[in-house]
Amino acid sequence: MPQLILFNKPYNVLCQFTDTAGRATLADYIPVPNVYAAGRLDADSEGLLILTDSGPVQHQIADPQHKLPKIYWVQVEGIPTEEAINRLAQGVTLRDGPTRPATVRRMAPPSIWERTPPIRERRAIPTDWLAITLTEGRNRQVRRMTAAVGYPTLRLVRASIGPWELGVLQPGEWRTITAPPNLRRR
Fold first, then answer.
1. For 124-142, how does the pLDDT look when each residue is reduced to its tens digit (9 = 90+)?
2. CA 31 to centroid of chain Cα atoms
3. Which residues are catalytic?
4. Where do the domains of the chain lie, and which CATH numbers do they carry?
């Protein structure tokens, strides 16, 4: 029976198990053999990462054709206008083409851990939080989208992937669950 590991990836940790440059990797947190990340988060992003011991399950979670929604909590520099939020929601044209439409809403700052190191903030420029739901996963997509509408991302936390949520997991914590039947059948 395939297992899933729900992991709260800390800031500055690579989504791989080895690194020749000595940077922090998944191996520093997850002592489980033969599991692999289903998707990835950049080193400077935090939050939910799912690992599994099943190649087909990994594919179903990570492949954009399955359109599993991923929710990101995004702290941006500045206060986005309604026009900017609408542009994000309709899809933004990036160098690698237009993004799919997204669900975007303002949100109160989430009750989450302090980041180490803290984000850079400028006293004269306020920040705001957005919840952005995507059904695709391009390289650095959220950061590129917010920058394209004039509000650079300062902090990015993935809160959920499909039915799985970060919940109360703190950075570096993980838990194992059994893959649901709809993933095991394929």
1. 889 999 999 999 888 899 9
2. 22
3. 42
4. 1-67+163-186 (3.30.70.580), 69-161 (3.30.70.1560)
